[in-house]
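Quick question about two entries, pasted in order.
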Amino acid sequence: MSQDQLQFLHKEVQNIIDAMAVKEYKTANNKLVIITEMVDELIDTTADDALLIEFSKYQIVLQHLQKKLNQSE
């Protein structure tokens, strides 16, 4: 299950980056909000330290993307 979650997160973060690259900022922002909430929930509910570290990495990437998105709009 956890490997599937990480693969899903990777795919969705890439979709956000792709949307930003073609200047579809509204699409990118909508996906960013959904995925950020999902990552926050995963961090809150996981007991596995290794998974917590991986989810935290995605949280940092999403925060960075949010800053870039805010600068672009």
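Here is the second entry:
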Amino acid sequence: MAVENKFAYFVDRSGRQVTVGTLRDIEQMDLGRGQIYYCDSEQALLQGVKEYYHNECIITLRSPMNDFKENLSL
């Protein structure tokens, strides 16, 4: 049985801007060039994005995710 992805993040071609949100919100965006990464949990999403946060990339939340936002800086 395949794991259903609930979250995603998009990294632009420069690797300096990341857009985070629910799968639906990310896939509805006109993202242009870059890469979408899919996650099955908010914890997996956090682990994927943390590297970009610590490298001082621009992180934009497309969906309301208070727990994600609070845990990103830890």
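Reply: The mean pLDDT is 90. Helices lie at 23-27, 42-54, 66-72. Hope that helps.
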